[in-house]
Write a structure and sequence with these properties.
alpha+beta; Alpha-Beta Plaits; 4-stranded antiparallel sheet
């Protein structure tokens, strides 16, 4: 059995794709997963599964969310070693320390094109900084996310299509959740 984290895109945001966490936990449990726990109300689920393939789990969860809850949303699944590697490789340790709610990780199903991220960084007209990871992009929003104009930068929408973002505080809480012994 391997422990994973599922990150559902766009759950309970702005009154859209509303899912109560007990319903989400029940769905995961009914699929045969164990030690199912949710974090916050934004579609973060820790669970153990005999399936180790994150791609297989993503496909299964997306299909079941459509079938059972009529939700067509993207799901990114990470195993605990991938989550820890993301934390360990954080290229913005000062932001993680000083403004963790302004450091976001955009998680993707597919490999991130590093050259496209480098081009994006050169095109950004605001104070944001970006750095590519394997299946994720780190972004620092020093002046806040709500005032950022990074979304207007050429290439941004293509790079983040299908991705789901979590702030650094949530990333660390997810790590703590999966690294604590399940009860």
């Amino acid at each position: 059995m391997r422990t994973h984290v599922a990150l559902l895109k766009g759950i309970n945001v702005g009154g859209n794709n509303v899912v109560k966490m007990p319903v989400l936990r029940d769905l995961f449990s009914s699929l045969g997963f164990s030690n199912v726990e949710t974090l916050l109300q934004s579609g973060n689920v820790a669970f153990t599964s005999p399936t180790s393939s994150t791609a297989e789990l993503e496909l299964l969860l997306e299909a079941e969310l459509i079938h059972r809850l009529n939700l067509k949303i993207s799901v990114v699944v990470l195993d605990t070693s991938e989550l820890q590697a993301i934390i360990d490789a954080n290229p913005f340790p000062a932001a993680a320390q000083d403004i963790p709610n302004h450091l976001l990780v955009h998680f993707s199903k597919d490999a991130v094109d590093e050259s496209a991220v480098d081009i994006l960084q050169r095109e950004i007209r605001g104070p944001e900084s970006v750095q590519a990871g394997s299946r994720h992009i780190y972004v620092v929003y020093p002046d806040g996310i709500g005032t950022s104009t990074i979304g207007k930068t050429p290439g941004w929408n293509k790079l983040t299509a299908g991705a789901t973002a979590r702030n650094w505080n949530t990333v660390l809480k997810l790590s703590n959740l999966v690294n604590e012994p399940f009860v």
